[in-house]
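Postdoc handover notes: sequence design on the structure in folder B. Input tokens:
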């Protein structure tokens, strides 16, 4: 029990349970269909799992909390497969854990949708994990996820805005983001200190495609450590590490080859411009 909350929950697992009054709105926004398979991240006590299971074909629910996973497994939902474990450790499609027999002889579905009221303490790693699984070929169509409002703002932020950063660029490269609902702290028990938003990420092949995804990721991460510097200056953060032979190319030369103004700030570059720049570094290292 967390002090003064009147509800048993584990803070380290980011447990803030959705209040019944909000469930219908969230499920309506997710809009499950009877033929669809869902991956739910963090089913908790099943607030979303039950309505999802009643509307969709199959729900595969990943829950890290052993007690909650066990309660859900024995709750008699025949089309819910509970996988006990950390979603961040997921690898194979669909994995078995030592606590759960392999997913029964179902064929992997042609497509899968993701839903979840995410644990806010690991929401960004989960978003990166989903992008990684998508890149590995998991047939993820979309992910409708509850997030801290500030994280949601970063997902939808356009270039040049205050919230535009690493998360914006790397997620917008593989998904379009849409804000669906805003929820106050009172929508959860215990109440979080922050406001929440429900966001849908609809995945697509990397747009534009990049020659070396690792170069693209490292370059974006590096230049945003100097987001208020000029682009040429910020690129020093990348080339200083001589990654991908970056030191063989001065930032000024890279920026010029990419057709960009060296006086611009990194935070003003579009995803396409980042991709162009990364491809220049990738081309000299190949
Ligand atoms: N879906 C429930 C609801 O809306 O009431 C619970 C949401 S609660 C914000 C987050 C849930 O994710 C908790 O049940 C927590 O135990 C689980 N969780 C936390 N970290 C996790 C992880 N790394 N992998 C899987 N589940 C996790």
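Designed sequence:
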């Amino acid at each position: 029990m967390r002090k003064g909350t009147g509800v048993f929950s584990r803070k380290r697992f980011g447990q803030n349970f959705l209040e019944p009054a909000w469930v219908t709105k969230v499920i309506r926004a997710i809009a499950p269909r009877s033929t669809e398979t869902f991956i739910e991240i963090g089913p908790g006590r099943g607030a979303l799992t039950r309505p999802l299971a009643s509307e969709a074909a199959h729900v595969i629910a990943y829950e890290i909390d052993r007690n909650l996973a066990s309660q859900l497994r024995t709750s008699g939902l025949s089309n819910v497969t509970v996988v006990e474990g950390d979603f961040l450790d997921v690898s194979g499609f669909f994995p078995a854990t030592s606590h759960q027999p392999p997913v029964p002889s179902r064929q992997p579905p042609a497509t899968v949708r993701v839903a979840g009221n995410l644990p806010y303490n690991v929401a960004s790693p989960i978003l990166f994990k989903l992008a990684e699984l998508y890149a590995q070929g998991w047939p993820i169509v979309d992910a409708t996820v509850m997030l801290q409002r500030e994280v949601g703002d970063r997902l939808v932020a356009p270039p040049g805005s205050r919230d535009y950063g690493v998360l914006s660029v790397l997620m917008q490269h593989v998904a379009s983001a849409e804000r669906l609902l805003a929820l106050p702290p009172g929508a959860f028990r215990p109440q979080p200190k922050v406001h929440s938003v429900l966001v849908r990420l609809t995945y697509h092949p990397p747009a534009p495609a990049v020659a070396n995804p690792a170069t693209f990721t490292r370059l974006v991460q590096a230049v945003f450590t100097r987001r208020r510097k000029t682009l040429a200056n910020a690129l020093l953060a990348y080339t200083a590490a001589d990654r991908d032979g970056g030191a063989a190319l001065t930032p000024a030369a890279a920026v010029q080859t990419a057709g960009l103004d060296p006086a611009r700030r990194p935070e003003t570059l579009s995803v396409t411009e980042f991709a162009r720049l990364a491809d220049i570094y990738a081309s000299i290292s190949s």
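Context for whoever picks this up: Residues 271-285 form the longest helix (15 residues). Don't rerun without checking with the PI first.
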